[in-house]
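Open question from group meeting: does this chain pack into something compact, or does most of it stay loose? Before anyone orders reagents, we agreed to write out a predicted structure and look at it together. Recording both the input and the output here so the notebook holds the full record.
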Amino acid sequence: MENFSSICFYTGLVSLVILLLKTFLPFDTGSEVDGDFTSITETESSFHLFSIDSVLSFLMCFGWMGWWAQNYQNYSFKICLLIAAASGLLGMFVFAFLFAQIKKLEFIPKNDLADLVNKTGKSYTKFNPKGNGQIQIEFNSKLATLDAVNESEEEINSFEMIKVVKVENNIIYITKI
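Structure tokens returned:
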């Protein structure tokens, strides 16, 4: 089955080239991303067996192992097909498992505004008495600019030190220090 060997070779080669191109080239589509990158979001890492990368991994392992078994080991067609399919599935599972493990390393912040109570920061905008504005405060190990309400009857100017006194209904209440 010389035809099977050629099919395996080109399957392995094409999937390897696509995987390398996908890995090392950015493939910029020219679209812009517009959004609030300081928003509070959570993501969940999970095991995705059927991704583009894992399917390409299956094809690459299937192709190269089928070609190897046919050309270098001179196994029968059925044995070559079995080796190719088994190694393709193994490659796909290993690839998906490794990426699931890598995703677990991502920092997923705890997004509870109540953790800000009694923390200090700076007013980013001027706050009128009982007025709204923005503060800069360390939240989730990063400096964040968040909306807040002045709890006191005192005016707070920009860049003055503030203290978070309470958080109710995801609204941050502050006072001047």
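Observations to bring back to the group:
The chain has three helices and five strands.
The first strand starts at residue 120 and ends at 123.
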